[in-house]
Amino acid sequence: MARVRCITEMGMGVDVHGKDATKAAKRALSDAIRHSSLGFFRMLGKTANDMFVDVTIGVPDPSGVDTAAVAKELPYGTVTVSAVKGGLEIPAESGGDSIIIANAAVIVSLDNGAA
């Protein structure tokens, strides 16, 4: 199977209180796909379920992202989510709270049928 990249989307999400990297990651993914409507599948004889969707989330602490929960945000395709070091953590002026900023890269590919 050879995948052909069809779409690349980027997004940013923020959790302002609570230091919840998963919440920020979900918001980044939502931001990346919110303005997309992929209608080219019929032209290629494919459906939305034929998509391979690879999501990379950048956050300060990748272990804090529930990648399965983030994957559930996408209704179609074979979804993989990985979390890597990135994004930003902005500490509050006082106390232990921080703003977590996540970045998302979403790559949609299709199998071109070649071996």
* Proportion of beta-strand residues: 35-45%
Apparent shape: elongated
How does CATH name the architecture?
Answer: 2-Layer Sandwich
Question: SSE string, helix = H, strand = E?
Answer: EHEHEEE
Question: How is this structure best described in words?
Answer:
The chain has about 120 residues and is of the alpha+beta class. It has a single domain, classed as 60s Ribosomal Protein L30, Chain: A. It has helices spanning about 20-35, 65-70; strands at about 5-15, 50-60, 80-85, 90, 100-110. Strand 2 (about 50-60), helix 2 (about 65-70) and strand 3 form a beta-alpha-beta unit. It starts with a strand and ends with a strand. The mean pLDDT is about 90.
Record keyword descriptors for this entry:
single chain, 115 residues, alpha+beta, 60s Ribosomal Protein L30, Chain: A, 5-stranded mixed beta sheet, 5 strands, elongated
Brief rundown of the structure:
By secondary structure, this protein is α+β, with helices and mostly antiparallel strands.
Spell out the blueprint of helices and strands.
Elements: E1 3-15, H1 21-33, E2 52-59, H2 67-71, E3 78-85, E4 88-91, E5 98-111
Parallel strand pairs: 2-3
Antiparallel strand pairs: 1-5, 2-5, 4-5
